Amino acid sequence: MKWTVKYTLLNVAYFAAFCTIHAYAAVYLLANGFNNTEVGVLLALANIVSAVLQPVIAGIIDKPGYLTNRRFIMIAVLIILGGSLILMFAHGNKPVIFAVYALIYMIQFAYQPVMTALCFEYQKAGCNIFYGLARGLGSAGFAVTSLFIGRIVENNGVKVLLWGNLITMAVSVVLILMFKKPESTADQEAEEETEVKGTAHNSLPEFARTYPAFVLFLIGAICFFFAHNMINDFMIQIIRHLGGNETELGFANFLQAILELPVMALIGIVLKKIRAHKLLIISGIAFFIKILILVFAKGLPEMYISQSFQLFAYAVFIPAGAYYVSETMEELDQVKGQAFITSAITIGGVFSNLISGVILDHSSITVMLLTGSAVCAVGVAITIFAFSRLPHHVNTNGPD
Predict the structure, then answer these.
(1) Domains and CATH numbers, the chain
(2) Which helix (DSSP H) or strand (DSSP E) does residue 165 occupy?
(3) pLDDT score recorded for residue 278
(4) Which of 60, 358, 376 is nearest to 222 (CA)?
(5) Which of 201, 289, 299, 396 shows its CA 20 to 30 Å from the CA of 71?
């Protein structure tokens, strides 16, 4: 139980910061003189670097050496803490804000798959962690933060977001320092390090030949998160279009995040009835319905209905993706598998940021949402084909 509590607190701190850094990125940047296109370019660059770094980091962590999941998380937390301190004194300095905000946005995305890998690493070492509950409560941390931060920002300005970053990262430092394996477990792990079963597939072509369904599914996931990030990163513009402001932004983020808790907490039970790859198809359909509702929305009630589909979209996708990797991949490929999923999410964000900002500056919210709906529909078709027609795992090494 104590390990679940520790991992839950680490998730709560992470997703509270995710709220202030990611969900309110456009709010912060627009308040500091950026236009929609500049916001899109900044977030796209941060996502591109993050997408490239995630598999590289995973490959390094997979190999025995100094850089472990826990140590990388500590490094990432300290970078975000330092970056937030710099931003406290950079008001109005757009070049500095651009560089530093892109860095902390990228770093926080980069250590998300490492958080997941940390859980499975400690589970393997005998530490009892209830992943679904911990991850769901992390989303609840995002939800509660979003519920209050919107009104506080509206009343006190965007500097509140930086204070939120500083507090959550300081808490994260304390938590990761406390997150240590028992000495007996660490000693045993060192002895068994060379006994890990399976084969690592480190080159992308080799990985693709071994997991063809997964690799094609990643393209579908990019399409899902093109639509998902379009909504999240430019939600303040969508809400203003529908007659709301930062307070409604906070409530909309709270609604979609709090709905993730029950699904993630119960995902273990759901997986006994429905296989992980089928849940990923269901989540893709939900992503499509979520953005399609916004195309025809006339007011905030439709916005809240759209956000409620988070229950079947993101809330299903994240744990189902983690369990799919755990079930279908060799042990030495699992950190890479988790990283590839996060990279797909990130790449979806890259294209979304680049295209959405330009569309908003030159056309309209409706055109942006129609574009997102079309891309997401393509992603659903690709995912259905991948999981119904291609093998999940191919033995490329011959008989054991």
Answers:
(1) 2-182+201-389 (1.20.1250.20)
(2) helix 159-178
(3) 95
(4) 376
(5) 201
